[in-house]
Design a protein that fits this description.
Length: 362
């Protein structure tokens, strides 16, 4: 092939590259030019038939053509990749401000207990509490003894405890009967000041319309050098206002007794019931929702804290109870029956995360 022929071949190939409309067509051009059976390979085959002198100059000319074609291919490839990306970005643009379209993925819903736990967490986080956790299977020490309920204490009978078989070392684990052992874990692992809540599952061998063998509580604990009963009342009142989303929640603090607090109180919420509808803050019916008090000095001693220096309050609230009250769900057993109709009716949208700013349950 003569030099002008080589030039015109190069011109043709560069034209084909320049006019390739997309990456696939460009690849066709590349294969036709540089592939195993392409133009350049065919030219190389002709080399053998040439004299040494011609071979040198022809070889150089073919290499020049090859380099020019490769460079043009690479440049075009980059251009086309960029264009393909822009087209893809434009096509896949998503308006993230659009509301979620209910589709098959929206079939699942958030269980009211999970929703209420998120609401509780949001409210206490806003008051500076952090989240503490403990296991469902607890030691007898954490669940009872450290909470000032020693082995022969009558309060043990009230708890309808699920016991595990005795371990070789003589200890007997339990399914925790309340979230209060998380108080012990928190105080053993951290130094005051402490301000935590601990939501979770608890277990008691008990079952009727208002009791299930597994239910949910949230524990609260504040320990420092100056917290007093006034703070406890304020925190609980603020919590109830935020949680029930009404300004005047009727609350009743009744003197009570718990081994781990002194003094101790139980708190009731006022409500009325018309037909099946529950109205919080009206009427003269009361529902107990929590127990609370100032942490007992013996509990502080059990976790090596000096009661002369440290004090604080604790509370334990029934999550299922307050969920029933807020969302008007009359039967506790339905919570755990796994009935799809019930879940569809009372469940929450997965993306409707409760925040104080946006309204907890809206
Ligand atoms: N643990 C108690 C129960 O399950 C509730 C409770 C009462 C927790 C008083 C507390 C408290 O932290 O101070 O019945």
């Amino acid at each position: 092939m003569s030099a002008p022929e080589l030039d015109s071949l190069q011109g043709e190939l560069l034209n084909a590259i320049a006019s390739a409309p997309d990456l696939a067509k460009l690849e066709d051009v590349r294969i036709a030019a540089l592939g195993r059976k392409g133009h350049v390979a065919a030219l190389m085959e002709q080399l053998g038939a040439l004299s040494a002198h011609e071979r040198r100059s022809f070889g150089q000319a073919v290499n020049t053509l090859k380099d020019a074609v490769s460079a043009a291919l690479e440049q075009k490839r980059q251009e086309l990749t960029q264009i393909a990306l822009s087209v893809q970005l434009a096509a896949e643009q998503a308006d993230v401000t659009l509301p979620v379209r209910p589709g098959p993925l929206a079939e699942g819903s958030i269980h009211p207990v999970s929703q209420v736990m998120d609401e509780i967490t949001e409210i206490f986080a806003d008051m500076g509490f952090s989240i503490a956790e403990g296991p469902d299977i607890e030691t007898d020490f954490n669940n009872f003894t450290a909470l000032n309920i020693p082995p022969e204490h009558p309060a043990r009978q009230d708890h309808d405890t699920f016991y595990f078989a005795e371990r070789p070392d003589g200890t007997r684990p339990v399914l925790r009967t309340h979230t209060s052992p998380v108080q012990i874990r928190t105080m053993l692992a951290n130094k005051p000041p402490l301000r935590v809540i601990a939501p979770g599952r608890v277990y008691r061998s008990d079952s009727d319309q208002t009791h299930t063998p597994m239910f949910h509580q949230v524990e609260g604990l504040v320990i420092d050098e100056e917290t007093h009963l006034g703070h406890l009342k304020w925190v609980l009142e603020e919590f109830c206002k935020a949680f029930f989303e009404i300004q005047d929640v009727k609350m009743r603090f009744r003197a009570s007794h718990f081994p781990f607090t002194e003094p101790s109180m139980e708190v009731d919420i006022g409500y009325s019931k018309q037909g099946d509808e529950i109205r919080i803050g009206e009427g003269d019916q009361w529902l107990e929702i929590l127990g609370c008090g100032m942490v007992h000095p013996n509990v502080l001693r059990n976790v090596e804290l000096d009661p002369e220096r440290y004090q604080g309050f604790a509370f334990g609230m029934g999550i299922d109870r307050i969920a029933m009250l807020k969302y008007g769900m009359p039967d506790l057993r339905a919570f755990f029956a796994g009935d799809l109709c019930w879940l569809k009716h009372y469940g929450f949208m997965p993306l409707a995360v409760p925040t104080l700013a946006a309204g907890l349950s809206s």
